[in-house]
Amino acid sequence: RWFWWRLNAEGELAATIATWVLAPALLFGRVFDAPVRHLFHTEAAFSSDPNLLGARMLFMVVTVTGIAVAVSLMTRPTDPKRLEEFVLRARPFGPLWSPVTRRLGQQYRPLERFEGVLGQWVLATVSMLALLIGLGKLLLGEPLAGTLLIAVFLISLLAIVRRVNADLG
Length: 169
Prior knowledge:
The chain is mostly helical and 169 residues long. 70% of the residues lie in helices and 0% in strands. It is built from 7 helices and no strands. α6 (114-139) runs antiparallel to α7 (143-168).
């Protein structure tokens, strides 16, 4: 709901339930294997082929997001006063909040710019991947690569901690 004022609790709940239903159906029920084979003329098993991991992730993200948006649009929006309170407290960025920020009747400044948030997200992603892959490399007997990746993790973690401390201080 942080990204767009129109998303509401009903849409979020529908997305959560959809995830609980779709993920097991995809991975264990194999209900999408036949449609994917037919649609893309492939013999690969959509539910288990390791080369289709990204496709499965994309399918889940697009489907669950679509459900959240559809249910939010079919249900009543969140109370405008509650949205205004949220905007003033959280200061979300982006044009998707402009219908709410215009109603405030004052100059609105988001807490952070989109570029800064995106940069922090990239840094956190790099940090976690470096840690996970670095540990894997160490466990698989590749000490040089593992050590370098753990160093990348520690450096990026230090940058994240400094940023959090600056935000809190």
